[in-house]
Amino acid sequence: MTTVSAASTMVHARAPGKINVFLKVGSLLDDGYHDVAIAYQAVSLYEDVRAHRADDFSVSVSGTVNLSRVPTDGSNIAIKAARLLARRTGYRGGVRLEIEKRVPVTGGMGGGSADAAATLLACDALWGTNISREEMHGLAAELGADVPFALTGGTAIGTGRGDQLSPALAKGLYQWVLALSDSGLSTPEVYNELDLHRQRHSQDIFPAEAAPTVETDVLQALRAGDPHMLAESLHNDLQAPALHMAPSLAAVIELGEKNGALAGIVSGSGPTVAFLTADLDSALELQIALSAAQMTVVRATGPVHGARIITD
What's the CA gap between 237 and 268, in Å, rounded? Predict the structure, then answer.
């Protein structure tokens, strides 16, 4: 997809985190995933991956977020991505990966998926394997449901496991304020809690649909580029189980909405809470208010582009 000089010893790639502005969870599939319908928006929190020529595979991490839960062995998704690309293309060398993380770890914003997407792009360019876009998306889908979207970015609808993407007609720039948590939530555990939640309540709350779809009002809001309309349409089936597992998130959402947010929503499986605001001034005011309440907050805009090569 992207080529660099054959003499290059390092390639730098960058990929964005994401917010699910809509997430409906359907039935459990045979492969252990759930059938989902997601409206993704890529936002301006980025993961940077620098891939260096090497004989073996290794990874180191740095960044502005809590890194204590990031593995640096073969279980790291970036190492898995590099090994998968090498295996599929017959590349016999290795790579030394340096990852600079800005997306919260286990925070429901797809930071690991962004690492994988950026690694695929960087290693393909570094090694000169030159796989097609279709092949790269196929590898991305093998690595995780959110990895293909980290490649494409922008605004998109994801179905199946979330990896079957179609572009969404969208305009405008959205201002988000993100309340970060010191702790993380395991995505599989949150999904499991949703299944238990549905069993306890006989599925009368967010019942599992056979083939969930993104609701029309979400698509209309995105087409209109109207944050007020989108705020009315934000929805996440995983919010209830995330709040059950981390009850303090309810107070975070309440505080944000009292201080000018149009709406707050748990991002993906949480525990990051994403607040949509009307404009930049509102976002700045909310950031100040939440910071004064001793919360760790960052601002982000969306949508932004997907994974790309950076010229240092």
Answer: 9
